[in-house]
Amino acid sequence: MNGAHAAHAAHRYGRKMLQPLVIGLGRSGAGLHAKALARLAALPEAPLRTAPLVACDPRPEAGRDLTGVTVTRTLAEAVRLVTPQHTVVHVCTPPASRTPVLAELAALGFRRFLVEKPLAADRTALDDIVRLRRHHDLDLVVVSHWLAAALTDRLRALVRERPYGALRHLAFAQHKPRFARTFTGEGHPTAFDVEIPHSLGVALDLAGPAELGDAHWSDLRCEDGVRRFMGSARLTLRHHSGVRTEITSDLASPVQQRSVTLRFERGAVTGHYPLSEHDDHAQLVLPDDPHGPRVFHDDALTAFIRRTYQDFAAGRRNHSTVPYDVVRLLCAAKDHCRAAERTPAGETPAVPTTEEQHVR
């Protein structure tokens, strides 16, 4: 499928067909977004009408394994193949480079954006993106697919219906070995930015607004060297509802895990999110369940992108503040860790105030 055909298809169908444009063909762009769009296009019920995918990445090797995708090497080349008012831009560049990419695309007339998590790596970048969104009236959605997961839906029902009483505590464990990607790229500045945004969004969704309680990070070490702040990350939250949350992520772990335990007044529930796109099944373990664990299909990213495109096509705006609250809490955690490194032994670093955290 050549670029002229893609542009013609988008123009021909107008508002009935949205044009995907993926910026960045790394792990997120090529490995997740492009494949999810292909799965949606292949569904027999044809839930969405999208034009053929156009992508942009300056690296000569990027996109070689993708079929049915027009790969460009410059944004100027990509822009010639699409119509901004009919395009959904998937921004899959590293979080540290989000602001200039969004600014350039907004200046070119693009208004619909699906941005990889986390939205920004620091408060300054977040404030810049908020200003860009307001100035250009951007319809900007942050990838938060755990919120669209079937497992999260079941957890919401347990919190809402209270079969085991009120929710008291949340504990997330997100572990995976990430040596090769960490030592060969600069995609994420700290371990807080890799896995934790997923669970942090779910914690806010299930238990409501929160303040940072504590945070810790460590370096990633192996025979190849040391990467500062990329080993492990841990944070605790104090929710206004009274719930406490603990999130841990170890990027030096020899095994992979994505799980959550909800402790209620009368029992504990454990959920396991799919580990990767290679097996999109989740598991739910309920107290005294003779049929447990419950195992079910849960392709959350495809469901999230499908829902987002449906909203874009219908003109429904996403007004969720959760992705912004996630970044603010992550920034508070990083500030706490930096302060701890500067604090003399025996003293306790101060946790940022509620006003400093700017949480929901």
TrEMBL record:
Gene3D superfamilies, per database record: NAD(P)-binding Rossmann-like Domain
Highest taxon of the lineage: Bacteria
InterPro entries: NAD(P)-bd_dom_sf
Annotated stretches, region: Disordered: 341-360
Protein name: Gfo/Idh/MocA-like oxidoreductase N-terminal domain-containing protein
Native source organism of the sequence: Streptomyces olivaceiscleroticus
Organism lineage string: Bacteria, Bacillati, Actinomycetota, Actinomycetes, Kitasatosporales
